[in-house]
Amino acid sequence: MTTNHCNDPCAATLIPLAKKEGITTVWDRHKAMQPQCGFGQLGVCCRICWKGPCRIDPFGDGPQQGICGATADTIVARNVIRMMASGAAAHSEHGRHVALALLGVAEGKLPDYTIRDEGKLRSIAAKLGLDGTREDILAVAREVALATLGDFQNQDHDTPCAWIASTITGKRLEKLAALHVLPHNIDAVVTGIMARTNVGCDADPVNLVLGGVKGALADFNGMCLATEISDVLFGTPSPVVTAANLGVLKEDAVNIAVHGHNPLLSDVVCDVALLMGDEARRAGAKDGINIVGVCCTGNEVMVRHGIPLAANYLSQELALITGAVDAMVVDVQCIMPSISEIGACFHTEIITTMDDTKIPGATHVNFREATATENARQIVTLAIEAYKRRNPQRVIIPDIKRTAMVGFGTEAIVGALATLNAEDPLKPLVDNIANGAIRGIALFAGCNNPQVDQDSSFVTIARKLARNNVLLLATGCGAGAFAKHGMMTQEATLEYAGDSLKAVLTAIGTAAGLGGPLPLVLHMGSCVDNSRAVEVAVALANKLGVDLDSLPLVSSAPEAMSEKAVAIGTWSVALGIPTHLGIMPQVTGSPVVTKLVTETVKELLGGYFIVELDPDRAADKLLDVIDERRKALGI
Ligand code: MSK
């Protein structure tokens, strides 16, 4: 499907402006790319060795094997599990970075960071089987960091990674162990996928996909540790009211957009900006410094500190086209290389900060945790200097921003429930699921993709599910979409929730002191924070004495795009969660792989992929799955 549309209300102003200025955007480039390669779309193009590229003729008239003899099934399986390995590597590298920072703090080597949530650190220690009660909190931090880094070092294949082993249900662990897909070492599993997909190695599509599932579960492990340790270092989210969309930019402030995923830098930039407001004012910015978020770095600082979100993935270029962004500071992942070219059309400093993420034309600040405050100061100074070069005539900030109540991590959700039942916080949730007031739970995750109208599938599916009393959780750029479209508000609950859901959300929100219902969609954080939703699901499953594949729980990635989304979707399925994709996955050139991931896997793991490009029909399918699960539970 090719639409080349953007459903973001800011686009109506900014895309014509871009055209007038001769600036191309992601939608222009997507259009120029049509028709996209059909072999690639089917996953049947093999570029694993230099005998190729080889491609299988999907119509049966041409080659049915690559030069080495690989079939479409082998080629598709190899391609897709390499995507999973890349996704796992991305999340886990982020996690390693954060774990090393925790170790640095514990050893007194990183004075610019501190333990912000001691309680969380102690509970993580207990969860990992360590002594969380020791008085010396730095000693606890050291043990947690070392145990976490052990998940990158363990060579015993029979001992699963500590984080996954301490997070999911016992029944799920047994099931995954029986299939030999439990990861023992993140690095080894990713390396293993690259090795088995090398020319002349694993050719069995089922064996390959199982190897991919192990990689996806390594991704899950990496996400768990990244999320939880980030909470320790930067604070655990709690409800906060903020705003989203490009109207959060300010004409009279130095606007700094933090973009990417890793809070190690962005959190310090936020702190330093607070101290440098006077310098900005001396440069003429009467409102000082305004930090805004983009993509998942945006989500990280939004759910923890209430920093407003300017843009999700597809709108990152639009932020620059306002002419009001003085610096866009990026760390890792989901950063379009095009931002450097667009920044150069304005006065905007594009600042890269990580050794492994540089962009031609950008200014590089060599970020190190040991010099984080100094680096942040350098970045804010660059932004103030850029502000002085800003041309006010070119500033067009669409007057569009929506309120968003965010910050619903696991602790915040359980905390809100505890206001109804302090002794047994999960009981109100379980009771309302059992009596049907909450029909089921849906987690919205994943990216934007120009193959569909930006944000529209998220909004369409969520509204239909909410009307049918499904509790909605969201992360990543999906959460960004909901925030931008006003669906993280109490008003949205009153407008779109079905009657029984509305009553439950109102009871919880009111008891929790929010002055009204919980927002229609609960923002759990960045894409790395999908592990939070699993934590809630595991608590529910344990409470009910069932495994995850019995819960009336679904997930949906209607606009999936990145390799990380491929990994997330796969672990979601492996954990027993029916998972909707609104984008055609690049596997349909293989009948074996297609059947495996949409049907056979259901018998093996309980979860499976539901591919439905039409958002309205997708909502119906998700409701059917929820009802099927309810029926099986006898509720
Ligand atoms: S940023 S991985 S586009 S969610 Fe996490 Fe958004 Fe997807 Fe990137």
UniProtKB/TrEMBL annotation:
Keywords: 4Fe-4S, Iron, Iron-sulfur, Metal-binding, Nickel, Oxidoreductase. The keyword Magnesium does not apply. Gene3D superfamilies: 1.20.1270.30, 3.40.50.2030. [4Fe-4S] cluster 1 binds at C37, C45. It catalyses: CO + 2 oxidized [2Fe-2S]-[ferredoxin] + H2O = 2 reduced [2Fe-2S]-[ferredoxin] + CO2 + 2 H(+). [4Fe-4S] cluster 2 binds at C46, C49, C54, C68. One of its GO terms (molecular function) is anaerobic carbon-monoxide dehydrogenase activity. Its EC number is 1.2.7.4. Its cofactor is [4Fe-4S] cluster. The keyword Calcium does not apply. It is an enzyme of class 1 (oxidoreductase). NCBIfam families: CO_DH_cata. This is Carbon monoxide dehydrogenase.
